[in-house]
Inverse folding.
């Protein structure tokens, strides 16, 4: 069986985790703080804070901004449900937009059309790790006409004075946009370190802050840190100082901090990310593109646009001129050959929770066109060249069996 995306676990990670376990400090502590600083150094972000998931990080940033009932947050229709769920949790309204024609990322023109005075945040999603059109999105949020229509209803929103650009880059760690790594491009960028991601901490995520200079990034960090620990104004590390036991709870917060056990994994992964992880994933994607190019039915993905480069998180193959039913039959045939594949993603309007809120798939034709013929191939560091060839053969045979 060729699995879809198992994590890379080896002795280096075992040793680092064991060191953490034996250190006596296993919750949020010195390794988490170090991991945050190293992420900032890697991405070029002004400040980074780690959480137990990218999802938690996005929600806390929305709450820091003061997003709530009556506010609107623009998101793509083509994304995982987490992007929309956090908006609902805050009591705000998700406003979905279609993706670009023949592309998985959201369409800036559709974003502009969806903006109202109630719009507080735009959440682009870097599907598969390929960066969105951030110049196009930045031009929208900084357009004087759109700024004039912006209606602030919290002190943070007033200080910002415009729509916040908050990237859901769960797939995008290590990707670059016009010479800058993601994490230093949008106002805020959330990365996921879930088990299937390029860089994993088993579960976990981080938010990189890159706000305008008028913001105090340390204050924003402290608010997010406090709210990730039930609103308690001292974390466990701070309370280890002599006589520093007393604390306060400044607001009813949440419990979504990253632990030093998770950070230990992340530190090993980050140290070898550019020298081992990304190069191998790039090789595998190149091998897939070369192999699938021989088939007229294969629509292979792009990983570079000029000086913009993907993180090579997913290999999203599309099968030309097929229906969703045929796509599903192809996936079943591939599975019977002991190769695990996936689909990224079922668009939000097709999911019961969002269909029940009134969203209709017919309003997002580009997203539907991408979804109904997409199949994600196995892609991970330990995937061998021989296994890549076996995947290609299994897909080719399955497509032939279904379409002939």
């Amino acid at each position: 069986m060729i699995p879809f995306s198992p994590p890379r676990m080896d002795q280096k990670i075992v040793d680092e985790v064991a060191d953490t376990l034996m250190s006596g400090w296993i919750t949020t502590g010195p390794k988490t703080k170090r991991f945050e600083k190293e992420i900032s150094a890697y991405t070029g972000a002004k400040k980074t804070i780690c959480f137990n998931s990218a999802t938690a990080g996005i929600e806390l940033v929305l709450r820091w901004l003061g997003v709530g009932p009556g506010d609107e947050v623009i998101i793509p229709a083509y994304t995982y449900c987490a992007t929309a769920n956090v908006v609902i949790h805050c009591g705000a309204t998700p406003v979905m937009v279609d993706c670009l024609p023949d592309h998985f990322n959201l369409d800036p023109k559709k974003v502009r059309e969806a903006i109202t005075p109630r719009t507080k945040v735009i959440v682009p999603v870097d599907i598969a790790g390929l960066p969105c059109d951030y110049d196009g999105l930045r031009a929208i949020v900084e357009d004087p006409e759109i700024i004039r229509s912006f209606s602030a209803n919290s002190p943070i929103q007033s200080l910002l004075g415009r729509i916040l650009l908050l990237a859901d880059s769960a797939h995008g760690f290590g990707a670059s946009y016009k010479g800058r790594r993601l994490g230093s491009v949008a106002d805020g960028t959330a990365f996921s370190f879930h088990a299937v991601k390029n860089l994993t901490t088993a579960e976990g995520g981080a938010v990189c802050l890159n706000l305008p200079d008028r913001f105090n990034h340390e204050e924003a960090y402290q608010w997010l840190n406090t709210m990730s620990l039930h609103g308690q104004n001292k974390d466990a590390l701070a309370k280890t100082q002599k006589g520093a036991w007393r604390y306060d709870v400044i607001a009813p917060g949440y419990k979504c901090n990253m632990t030093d056990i998770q950070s230990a994994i992340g530190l090993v992964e980050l140290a070898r990310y550019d020298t081992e992880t990304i190069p191998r994933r790039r090789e595998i994607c190149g091998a897939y593109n070369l192999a699938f190019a021989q088939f007229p039915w294969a629509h292979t993905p792009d990983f570079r646009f000029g000086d913009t480069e993907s993180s090579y998180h997913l290999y999203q193959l599309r099968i030309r001129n097929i229906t969703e039913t045929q796509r599903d039959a192809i996936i079943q045939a591939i599975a019977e050959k002991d190769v695990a594949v996936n689909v990224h993603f079922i668009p939000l309007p097709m999911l019961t929770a969002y269909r029940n809120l009134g969203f209709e798939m017919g309003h997002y034709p580009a997203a539907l066109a991408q979804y109904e013929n997409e199949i994600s191939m196995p892609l991970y560091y330990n995937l061998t060249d021989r296994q890549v060839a076996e995947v290609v053969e299994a897909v080719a045979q399955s497509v032939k069996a279904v379409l002939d």
